[in-house]
Amino acid sequence: MYKYNLHGLVVIVLLLFCNKTSAKPVLFQTNAENSACASAPVETKNSKATHDLCKVSREVEGPKEEERLKVLFVDVNSMMETVGSSMDWTANWIDGKFTESEMGRNKAKAWGHINVGWEPKESEWDNFPIKFRVKAKLPNLENKVEIIFSDNEQEDLNSLPYETVRPEALKSSQRSLGAAVRFMHSSSENLSSASRIGTGDGQVYARSGFTYNKKLLSNKLTVYLQPAIEYYYSDGLGGRLLFDSAYALNLKNELRVSYLLQDRESFEAPKWRNGIYSISALSNETALIIGATAAGVVEPNYRPEFYKLSVRIRKKAIRSWIFIEFEPFVEFNRPRLVEDFQNGHIYGEFERDIGIALRFEAHYGFN
Predict the structure, then answer these.
(1) Global pTM value
(2) Domains located in the chain, CATH noted
(3) pLDDT one-digit tens code per residue, 262-273
């Protein structure tokens, strides 16, 4: 597995240095609405964040009239087109089950991204995460049903919208394939609702929730609220509440504050997570995200067990559908020496862990 990932990093280097064609510029936009590169607005906590970063670093319409990218004897465009075509075929095969007319066939479209990275830390150097996500809408069900495939989407639900380097393990060997069907029930200007049935973390789950968003202060402040009720086959009944706010300082800078609260029957105590992030457009092709995160448990004492500081640079490279990220970070964890949910845990000292993340991301298919 590591040999395979190292080969992937070699391809990344060749892509960056063997082709000098510049990508198309894009404009920085804040408080954007949902788009093709955004995740599900109710269940997926990264929906707004993913979309905003996509708006910072690329046009949603995708590559147009760009020279085909070739590395040695490999046509990279053909590779991505093959991936997109196979995803479209799967989406159309499923969508075709809901129509008897030939006119209603072959209209479904899939889109997604592949992310390959290296995230070494002082205590862990062999961390080569490979992430992917595929979404497809079904026109024969009035586009109110989506099919989603991803590698362990549950970790997205356990972190904040702009959080990327997580304290949880990200090794490929520890990841699991997830699949879900999402049903959109209703949608208005400020409120939408949806439900999802799927599998992730080795267990079947069901989730239903709402997304409320409201623009205030002459559209400079946007507030998002996402409550959801969940049921997991192994973890039991649970709930999740995400609060996210975005304040536009100017056309190129935005400040976001996020808070996440989770609880399930299998948890000893509810878990909380909060963060503050500064997002800036350095140019039409580069975005800078500076973040600070804290996490802990609600009971018996509301105390942080984890801190993280990170600086992420996201840049469009070579083509409008290819991105690279560079993110140095520092984490502080303190272990529980004695667990006592009645009188309070006894903690050790915070342990520092410094690392850096290098990521290569390619998008395929556009809504």
Answers:
(1) 0.74
(2) 2-364 (2.40.160)
(3) 999 998 889 999
